Every structure is written in structure tokens, then in C-alpha cells.
Target: Myo-inositol-1-phosphate synthase
Amino acid sequence: MDASLGAQEAGAAMRTGIWLVGARGSVATTAVVGAAAVGTGAAPPTGCVSEHDDFREVALPGLGELVFGGHDVARTPLPKRAEQLMEAGVIPHGLADLVREDLVRADAEIRPGVTAEAEDQAAAVATVVADLEEFKRRGNLERVVVVNVSSTEPPPTAHPAHSTVRALRRALASGEPVLPVSSVYAMAAFLAGCPYVDFTPSCGARLPALVELAHERGVPCAGSDGKTGETLVKSVLAPMFARRALRVRSWSGTNLLGGGDGAALADPARAAGKVDSKARVLAEVLGEPVEGGVHIHHVPDLGEWKTAWDHITFEGFLGTRMTMQFTWQGCDSSLAAPLVLDLARLMALAHSRGVHGPVPELAFFFKDPVAGGEHALEQQYAQLVRWANGPRVTQ
Model:
């Protein structure tokens, strides 16, 4: 065999697939465009944590080596979706045209998504497993990481089938629809031997039965709810108050969201999980609950942008009352997409090391990290760097 051809085939075999649930959404589209642009040198890796010097010696798949596919119920092709994001100012002008071939290639790998109305969840799981296995085979991929970036679901109702793998299999075999859609994908990912990431606050892999299945199948999982805006700031400011021994009396946040995320969270049932995950960092870092809470409002005119305004009251020496306010304005897709790429690369690393079950060392990326643990951002980052640069670990 020609030596150069052999090298090309060896390189192809090392490629990592990213299977995006919600593959035609804004975050997924931005991630595909960004990976292609950075991989070819057309854009810098701004916002990609895994491109820090702290990870230079870590054996991560290159951004240009990532292969994309996914599921979605939407039908707008990726090239068209990228054009829409370009017009909205999310993607730089002309970039969608520059990576059009990559978008077309990724769009060809998108399959019809599972809906909440699916009557036979066992069949839905089997279909997703087959899609994942075929994607891996067709792309000659070493592994596939499944990342959920679809719309947030309402919190699930507790069910006995959620407790063990055996009970879950029995319920699905009987035709009983017991899983949220995100958990259908998580179960399929584990059965297909794929790492799974919950980038949304949806249930996903957080059911005890699915955690058991992840260990049983020897695959890692991580989540949940990507930390991209207001909560990112909270995870820096809350430790400041705690270390300075200043007592926080109240912390109120108002979130204005446009786009698909804002529309989904206009439903109070769907917003419940998001509000819970956003509030968790304060109680964990400050050591006690505080008054206030988070309020989410859908403002369609904001489009792909979001605004968060926080008002904090705190108490200093001799009980002196003081206040602090901050405003965060950002483009959610631009903030989230590089983290999706980071997580896919790091989960590929975890899988290659034989890690299985929840990966608490990836807490840096999430509002509500699996397995609890540290919530202060700087400590989370130090933990992440130590883990990524550490020796091969098999749980």
C-alpha cells in the first residue's frame, strides 16, 4: 500500500464523530461552522477552552478531525440555517459560504428526530442505536460522542422504571412510554457504546437506570445545562462574596431570551428545570439559600441574543447594607458552540481512558454538574486541567 494512503486511512480511523441531538438548531449549526472554520485556519479558536495552553499536551482530537451528524425534527438544511445565522450576525459574513461543503456533508448525516409522541420507545431507542452505529461505520470513526443541544424539556414525572436497568427494560418491552425524549437518546447512546453529554437541563442521562447502564456499557456521561452566561458570572462572583466573608442577602436575576430557547422556556413547565439549575450555584457556593430567584422572559425581538440583569444585596461589617448589579448581554449560540466542541473532545479523551459513568471533572462546563462537587469556576477549572493532564484512568 502507498505510504501516504496508509497515513490518510490511519488518520481517518482516528477521527471522532459528534452526533448532535438538535442538529439543525442554532448552537449545533454554529458548532459545525466553527469547527470547520477553525480546522482550516479561517477563524481563531476564541472561546474554545480546550485550546488553552493548559491542554497543549493532552491528546485531544483536532477540531478539523471532527465529523458531524445528528437527529432533528426540523427540516431546514444546515447551509440555509447557517445563512440565517450569518444574516443575524451570529456567524461572520461570508463564513457560511466558505465552509458550505462541510455543512452539506454534515447535513447529509442528519436523521429524523424522536418526538415526544413516539408510541414505541423501545423501537425509537433501537432506531437511534442503528443510526449511531451506521454513522460510526460509514465515517470510519474511532468513537462517536452524542451531545444533546435540543430544546429544554419539562422535568419528568418519577417512575419506578427509572430506578434500575432491569425495570427500565421491562417497561419498554411492555410498550410503556416511560422516558423523556432526551433519555431515549441517552439510552441509545449507551447501548451503542457512545459517550453522552447533556448540554441542556433536560433529564437525559440523569436517571439512576441510565447511570447504571453507562457503567454497565463502559461509557462516560456528563452534564447538565451548559454554563454560558449569567450562571458563568455567578460562579465567579459568588466565591468572591464567600471568601470576603460578606453575607449575600438576596440575588435576583431577570433573563430576557429570544430565539428557540426563549420560545421553549416561555412554557413554565420547561422553564422549571432551567430555573432550578441556574439557582443551584448560589446555594452550593454560599452555603445557604438566598432570597430572589431567577425569572425568564421570552422576547422574540432579541432573536439569537440574550440579556441577564442581576441585582444583589449584601451585608458588610456591622451589618451595613450594600448592593451590586451587573448586566450580561451575549449571543447564546456563539457562547455555547465552542463549549460543545470542548466537551466532545474531552469526552472522547475520557472514553479513550476507559472512564465510565458520570465525569465530575467536567463540572466547569455546567450549571448543575453531575455527581455534585465544586461549583466555584476557578476551582472547577483547576480540577479540569489536572484531570485532562493526568494519567490514564480506568474506573
